[in-house]
Amino acid sequence: MERYASCHCGKLVLRCAGEPVKVSLCHCFDCQKRTGSLFSVAAFYPRESVALMAGEAKMFHRPSASGFDVSFHFCPDCGSSLWWEPERLPHLIGVAAGAFADPDFPMPQQAVWSEQRHKWLALPLASHARNPVKT
Length: 135
Fold this sequence. Notes:
The chain is mainly beta. It has one helix spanning 29-35, and strands spanning 2-6, 13-17, 22-26, 40-46, 50-54, 58-63, 69-74, 81-86, 92-96, 110-112, 126-127. It has a single domain, classed as Metal Binding Protein, Guanine Nucleotide Exchange Factor, Chain A (Beta Complex).
């Protein structure tokens, strides 16, 4: 199976081979600020399963709440954050699940950083106050 993720303007495209290793929802304040929403949803793929098919990305590197840095790659034209490289999980690439524009995309298996979740938001997922043990 192959899936394609793209930015809003379509100039930046990733090909992801196979199924994601994990799909995770994150409530941390950094993800809230990055997405402008209450959470982000990431599809994690093995590094070797992800290929840039079109475009050139800009990168933003920052520390994360877990204590490990993350490098975000985004479209320089429309600003969409398409994928990221978490130092905490160096063998994986996180891809913005919404960038697949697929309503049949697998549901997240867990929610992390639920201690920063908006209290009125209830989701049917296993929830961790912070990050769970490394996968």
